[in-house]
Amino acid sequence: MTKHDAARRAFLVRAAVGAGAAAGAGLVPELSAQMDPHKQPEVPSAAHQHPSGSQSGAFFNHEDAITIAAFTERLMPGAPDKPGANEAGVLNYIDLALAGAYADLQDFYRRGLAQLDVYCRKIHNASFQHLSPAQQDGVLAALEEGKATGFAWPAAQDFFNTVRIHTFEGMFADPVYGGNKDFAGWRLVGFPGAQAMFTPIDLENKQAFTRAPMVGLQAVASSPTRKG
Predict the structure, then answer these.
(1) Contact (CB, 8 A) for 152 and 86
(2) What crossing angle do the helices spanning 90-98 and 156-172 adopt, rounded to 10°?
(3) Nearest 5°: CA angle at 74, between 194 and 145?
(4) pTM
(5) How many whole angstroms separate alpha carbon 92 and alpha carbon 181?
(6) What is the pLDDT of residue 57?
(7) Which of 59, 63, 74, 209 fits a 20 to 30 Å CA distance from 92?
(8) CB within 8 A of 5, min separation 6: which ones?
(9) Is the pLDDT of residue 130 over 50?
(10) For residue 186, what pLDDT is reported?
């Protein structure tokens, strides 16, 4: 992993820690209204997790899924023993969110991806997913700085910032929403999840929480104490 990759990862990790990774329960809109304490959350289908598969996702078509997978992986690149966006299922999270809570952003993503494709073909004569990591980083930098040409709506910076926010959410939101696969994001920042209780030692400990098991909303909603 390059220094550039490490810096990008560190940015998202710091953001998660700064938010208390409280993302765990609060990143997705209308969570309180959607979470009936007596009803087990619906488990997202695993069929949408891999852009290399033959099936389309809940919202993305095959090509757009590949582009978003490449885009988010450059925002949060994986490293040995450190999961990146693809390993954490960020694509699956965004795909499911756009088919549900973020349905109002569907046209935003369609137009943003179309403009991204035109820009990449103009600059590099290839679509984003076919560029080298260095070229992809250059495209992302141009988006972030508002220097990518050909963007009307959404603006280049708006598209970049939105995908970055959704990458953050897919890394660190509760796994019930389709990302943070196997608690990859929580393990990265030492967030304990929805633990039933913390011992006095846990509360005094200054280090990242590592005691197994980590617990998500699905387990909490389906536990006997939450029924009745």
Answers:
(1) no
(2) 110
(3) 110
(4) 0.73
(5) 10
(6) 84
(7) 209
(8) 77, 79
(9) yes
(10) 87
